[in-house]
């Protein structure tokens, strides 16, 4: 082991403090090395939080979490490699370069969530990840943050070697160990600490603050002699500016969020609730304005024409046979249950709804409970707060009618609820003359998705009758399609009625309307091979 205070041996590479000089550290070499590894740990934790923040926010704003995660991860990993190559040119000024990179990373990463949310709220419709052949802001932030994170590695390697020379393999092992442990802590802190306690916007700002302080403290605390007096002053001023910007954003984050929410939902926001499952927003419902229910930014219910949708979902399946025992999958707003209870002979209605928050809101919000006719107050209704897939696997009950009022299959998290395995479980709980109806998304705008639902039901051993109902207006926008005004909403709703025997549909015109769009030869969607992309 080389004494860090001894002259450099012949042939050793020149060090930043001057040719042949060892750095002058304010602490012992072992302590300095520990502090560098601690800095690696903190920076890695912050970097992974930025990464997860981009994935989470993009999944909420754009939908399709698998695609967003794939894009963010692949772009960031590519950019990290590119950043490492670029940073090789900064190794002769490793301390100054590292300090500047951490200040910029703290600013970009800390403000990334607010910038994405602002673009979503004020820059118009996000039709998908790619629009007009160009990358969205998500890709830009992934690229920039990845470049900066990748640039950290060679500079930190240079700094740790300057404190105590060791073989390259040992230095890499130490550096990566601290980096990976930091990534573990950041990865766990994001979902279990930052997101539930601070939210996406404030969590990113706090992470940027920690990042800036850690980078500046490491450089000025250990390697201040490597910087000129002007360089030290510039680094301090830069970090104070970054911290001031982050602090100012944190102070105004609530006002920003309210303004952005109004830009997205309009000025009639009455309720904004973040549950363990999703964000719930209610607008209207008073002063003559129709009620609208948004789940994770997507319009799920519009008071203008929700009745037509729920009538088309519920009444055909209820009219076609016995309906004493009914199971509603999803439907936490109570509107499908309202239509079920209009039929005589209903003795029991079970509702499998994952989010207890939406059910509680449907019980207590005056406008929503008035719209659903206080459906959950009926003694025949039992709510089970569990995933629909889990309920179908675990229940031993059988039902005359099963109503699948679930998010559109185009949302990645919902694909398992439109799989062959799921419909096989639904078939198992159907009574001998039982029927199942599935909301399968708009037909005109996504015919392939609609007919894949039909093919999947058939693959599960059910006979089907697809049907299509047009809306009186386009206020209802189910599924992942974001609605920015009436022009963006689907203008029809597609459903599939299914049973063990060929079901009889009381709306022959609706069946003919769907049949005209039929796509044949589509494969079924399964858990391991979902086929609802696009």
From TrEMBL:
Spermidine binds at residues 310, 333. It is an enzyme of class 2 (transferase). The chain crosses the membrane at residues 34-62, 68-87, 99-123, 135-160, 172-195, 201-222, 234-253. Residues 1-22 are annotated as: Disordered. One of its GO terms (molecular function) is spermidine synthase activity. S-methyl-5'-thioadenosine binds at residues 278, 353, 387-388. It is found in: Cell membrane. Pathway: Amine and polyamine biosynthesis; spermidine biosynthesis; spermidine from putrescine: step 1/1. The active site is at 405 (proton acceptor). It is a multi-pass membrane protein. It catalyses: S-adenosyl 3-(methylsulfanyl)propylamine + putrescine = S-methyl-5'-thioadenosine + spermidine + H(+). InterPro entries: MFS_trans_sf, PABS, PABS_CS, SAM-dependent_MTases_sf, Spermi_synthase. Residues 1-13 have a biased composition (Pro residues). Its EC number is 2.5.1.16. PROSITE patterns: PABS_1, PABS_2. Keywords: Cell membrane, Membrane, Polyamine biosynthesis, Spermidine biosynthesis, Transferase, Transmembrane, Transmembrane helix. Residues 252-500 form the PABS domain. Catalyzes the irreversible transfer of a propylamine group from the amino donor S-adenosylmethioninamine (decarboxy-AdoMet) to putrescine (1,4-diaminobutane) to yield spermidine. Belongs to the spermidine/spermine synthase family. Homodimer or homotetramer. This is Polyamine aminopropyltransferase. It comes from Streptomyces xiangluensis.
């Amino acid at each position: 082991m080389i004494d860090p205070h001894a002259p450099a041996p012949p042939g050793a590479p020149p060090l930043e403090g001057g040719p042949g000089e060892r750095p002058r550290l304010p602490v012992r070499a072992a302590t300095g090395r520990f502090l560098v590894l601690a800095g690696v740990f903190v920076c890695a934790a912050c970097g992974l939080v930025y990464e997860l923040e981009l994935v989470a926010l993009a999944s909420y704003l754009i939908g399709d979490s698998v695609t967003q995660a794939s894009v963010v991860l692949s772009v960031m990993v590519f950019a990290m490699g590119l950043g490492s190559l670029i940073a090789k040119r900064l190794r002769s000024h490793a301390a100054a370069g590292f300090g500047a990179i951490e200040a910029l990373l703290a600013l970009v990463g800390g403000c990334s969530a607010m910038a994405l949310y602002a673009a979503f709220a004020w820059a118009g419709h996000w039709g998908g990840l790619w629009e007009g052949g160009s990358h969205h802001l998500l890709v830009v932030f992934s690229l920039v943050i990845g470049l900066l994170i990748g640039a950290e590695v060679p500079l930190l390697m240079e700094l740790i070697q300057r404190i105590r020379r060791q073989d390259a393999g040992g230095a890499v092992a130490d550096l990566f160990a601290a980096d990976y442990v930091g990534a573990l802590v950041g990865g766990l802190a994001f979902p279990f600490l930052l997101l539930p306690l601070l939210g996406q916007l404030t969590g990113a700002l706090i992470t940027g603050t920690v990042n800036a302080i850690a980078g500046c403290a490491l450089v000025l605390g250990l390697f201040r002699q490597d910087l000129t007096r002007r360089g030290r002053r510039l680094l301090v001023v830069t970090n104070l500016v970054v911290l001031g910007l982050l602090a100012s954003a944190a102070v105004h984050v609530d006002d920003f969020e309210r303004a952005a929410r109004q830009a997205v939902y309009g000025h009639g926001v009455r309720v904004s609730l973040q549950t363990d499952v999703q964000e719930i927003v209610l607008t209207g419902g008073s002063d003559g304005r129709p009620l609208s229910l948004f789940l994770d930014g997507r319009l799920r219910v519009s008071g203008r024409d929700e009745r037509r949708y729920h009538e088309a979902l519920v009444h055909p399946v209820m009219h076609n046979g016995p309906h004493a025992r009914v199971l509603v999958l999803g439907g936490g707003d109570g509107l499908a249950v309202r239509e079920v209870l209009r039929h005589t002979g209903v003795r029991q209605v079970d509702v499998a709804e994952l989010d207890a928050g939406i059910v509680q809101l449907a019980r207590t919000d005056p406008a929503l409970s008035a719209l659903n006719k206080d459906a959950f107050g009926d003694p025949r209704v039992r709510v089970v707060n569990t995933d629909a897939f889990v309920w179908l696997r675990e229940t031993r009950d059988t039902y005359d009618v099963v109503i699948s009022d679930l998010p559109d299959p185009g949302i990645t998290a919902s694909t398992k609820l439109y799989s062959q395995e799921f419909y096989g479980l639904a078939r198992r709980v159907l009574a001998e003359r039982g029927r199942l109806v599935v909301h399968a998304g708009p037909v005109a705008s996504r015919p392939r998705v609609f007919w894949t639902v039909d093919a999947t039901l058939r693959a599960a051993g059910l006979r089907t009758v697809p049907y299509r109902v047009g809306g009186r207006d386009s206020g209802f926008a189910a599924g992942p399609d974001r609605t920015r005004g009436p022009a963006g909403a689907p203008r029809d709703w597609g459903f599939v009625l299914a049973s063990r025997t060929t079901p009889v549909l009381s709306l022959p015109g609706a069946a003919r309307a769907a049949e005209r769009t039929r796509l044949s030869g589509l494969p079924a969607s399964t858990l391991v091979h979902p086929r609802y992309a696009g």
